[in-house]
Amino acid sequence: MTNRLRLARRAVRVLRELAGASVWDPAPPARLCRAAAVAWHPDEPGDGHKVFQLLREAYRVTKLLASSPHRR
Questions:
Q1: CA-CA distance, 4 to 64, in Å (whole number)?
Q2: Given CB 3.0 to 4.6 Å as the disulfide criterion, which of 5, 8, 18, 40 pairs with 48?
Q3: Whole-structure pTM value
């Protein structure tokens, strides 16, 4: 398994965990990111700023690897 694939799987796993989705949920990363963003937005009560930054980075990685020419 390549490092890119491992990184993509970890990023999607983080998105699923932050969104509160099941491990077997086939939702695309964009939908998982939106659900997690609603739950962890920094404007909501609680300490969600660092979690929101992690969420943004995980989504950025999934988008970057999905658009990679090596994946096509």
A1: 10
A2: 40
A3: 0.73
